[in-house]
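Quarterly update, task 2.4: magnesium ion-bound model.
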Amino acid sequence: MNRQAPGAAAARDLMKHPKILIADDESAITTGLAAILEDAGYAVDVVADGQKALDKLSAERYGVVLADLKMPKLDGLALLRELQLRDIPTECIIITGQASVDSAVQAMQQGAYDYIEKPLNAEKLNRLKALIPKALDKYQVQQKNRELSSKLEGLTHYGELTGQSESMRSVYQVIEAVAPSTASVLILGESGTGKELVARALHTKSDRSKGPFFALNCAALPKEILENELFGHEKGAFTGSTNEKAGAFEMSSGGTIFLDEMAEMPTDIQVKLLRALETRQIRRLGGKKEINVDIRIVAATNKNLQKAIADGELREDLYYRLAVVEIDLPPLRERADDIQLLANEFLGRFAQQNGKSITGFEDQAWEWIISYHWPGNVRELKNALERAVIMSRGSTITASDIIPRHLRAGGEMPAALTIPVGATAAEARQQLVLRTYASTSGDVVRTGKVLGLTDAEVRTELLTMLQVAGEAPARPAPVVTASAPAPRPEPAPPAPAARSSKRPDPAPPARAAKKPTARKGR
Ligand SMILES: Nc1ncnc2c1ncn2[C@@H]1O[C@H](COP(=O)(O)OP(=O)(O)OP(=O)(O)O)[C@@H](O)[C@H]1O
Ligand SMILES: [Mg+2]
């Protein structure tokens, strides 16, 4: 029997050929089974009761445990429960007598991989031999996911992205998992949520990072120019084309091409793009030759794609090609802890750039920052912080430094308030206080008057929010939206020359916060 010493090499080996543990008190079964599995190339250990199995599984890694349902000290079901309680990774196959098939089914409902009935005749053994590799595969996939999550746990930055919220860590996890592949990725999210930074991270974390990253804004260019930019042209392809020109596909070969605002692409270019994606070949305008391109496509949009497809603006087949993996970036207002992290980071960055020594925020400014709903997302926060640093005359940012003038004036501009179904009345009240407070430019007395609360009550709500903001969980999907229009955010800064001059609506309708999903396209 295998008695391999634990260690790095053994751990590596285990990833390739995970060990199997047999837990059964009938030595006739264990001896025979161990011999058969060892002959099949597996490393096998044997124990005679459930407690010993648990001890072994706590000390060493086993890809699969074959556990007798009825064994001394800890039976199969109890062992399974303990494994789950202690979060011990392994796949459990239950061995059961005919009389206790019901319990075996129950074990499966509780997370066992499968069960096999005694007597272990030739047919059952064959079934077991077929089951084990599948269970080991599942174990290995789960191990990989665990490694990824623990690697990304506690991360506050990833590539150029800043964020420590659970939703952003899930985004990092998807990027980390898909970056090495050539799978097309579609990034969704409101304006200013960081879609371009995600696209860049996908590039820099991939094997293509040494190749070019080529960004093209599909909304910014007229159809003919976009087509020319994407596919290039041959000499004489159209009047005035005296030279040949390689397009983005050729130029980004070996790297990543980022198609920003891809839902704006004219439909006949979509057909060509689809063909390029399917064949990995393009033809220049006016050219006959098929040119091979080795590209990875990342696309982004802040449009409602279901509507774009329904309206015939986006080809459904192209959508499925581009969205092999979809990453949905959550809006900033749903990431309270990221607001704080980003605000501090931008403060430090802009203070340094402007040669100012600003150490933090006054309470009122801070309260406004965390209670404002940031319709322009991180871009708006970044701009607000830059402006605040420039305006600031002291060593801390005040409310009047940070709150944009159009939100300060009057305060008659209530933000739309979104109350998630499932929220408690207390939570709804807190949201109401915060939004009203923001709309009065941080005036506790007026907030109290508007809401019919005392100043002390308003302060208590604000304080609670301040205290929990750091650990606030992602809000459930907002489904009930009440009241007035949201205030317009500050205009986005002018886009860099090479990119779109058209900025999408900075306050698109709120979309349900979705965890990023990795999904196979058709
Ligand atoms: N998580 C983040 N960490 C740091 N900076 C961020 C983050 N998200 C966005 N930004 C910054 O905010 C600005 C907007 O980001 P980006 O251009 O990636 O957004 P976008 O989703 O592509 O927006 P749009 O839909 O308007 O094109 C950039 O200056 C970017 O550096
Ligand atoms: Mg963008």
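Highlight for this quarter: The CA atoms of residues 67 and 91 lie 10 Å apart.
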